[in-house]
Specification:
Elements: E1 7-8, H1 11-20, E2 24-30, E3 33-39, E4 42-46, E5 49-56, H2 61-68, E6 71-83, E7 92-107, H3 110-125, H4 134-139, E8 141-155
Antiparallel strand pairs: 1-8, 2-3, 2-6, 4-5, 5-8, 6-7, 7-8
């Protein structure tokens, strides 16, 4: 990270920032370009690993790209605010962001799909005591992004 003075390395602070985010943008390599999709997400830390869960349709561009090239980039941010100035070059912004890379794959185990869906609902609602009808679990695609690298930055 170029601005080491803005880097956040405390694991608890990074987790707190992730918990306050509402959207995770995932970037896929797509031929000669990049395809970025904003997603609702759930976050899980277990056994020394960090993972994001997403849900969606079982087919379409996102599902195709996950199958073709599962190495992805991701970005989350929160607390954006503009710092105004009397001069154009004096403008800046406040934010907290998390950026990283990982490997994304479809989740096929029904128990893990439920766990992933609960993590998504926890992120969205603050509750994790949700139940999901069998048919909904069977027809919904759930994807898990295992984080390989992650950095966090804040500008106040």
């Amino acid at each position: 990270m170029r601005r080491a003075d803005r880097e956040i390395t405390d694991h608890g602070t990074i987790t707190d920032i992730i918990r306050r985010c509402h959207c995770c943008r995932v970037g896929f390599a797509d031929g000669d370009g990049v395809y970025i999709v904003p997603l609702s997400f759930g976050f899980e830390e277990a056994e020394g690993r960090c993972a994001f869960y997403f849900h969606g349709a079982t087919e379409g561009r996102k599902a195709d790209l996950i199958g073709a090239c599962p190495t992805v980039g991701f970005e989350l941010d929160t607390d954006y605010a503009l710092n105004q100035s009397g001069s154009a070059c004096g403008f800046s912004c406040r934010f907290q962001s998390v950026i990283g890379t990982g490997v994304i794959r479809p989740v096929t185990d029904p128990a893990e799909k439920r766990r992933g869906l609960r993590q998504i609902m926890l992120q969205l609602s603050g509750r994790e005591d949700w139940t999901f009808p069998e048919q909904a679990v069977a027809s919904t695609a759930v994807f898990r992004l295992d984080v390989t690298e992650m950095t966090c930055k804040a500008h106040e």
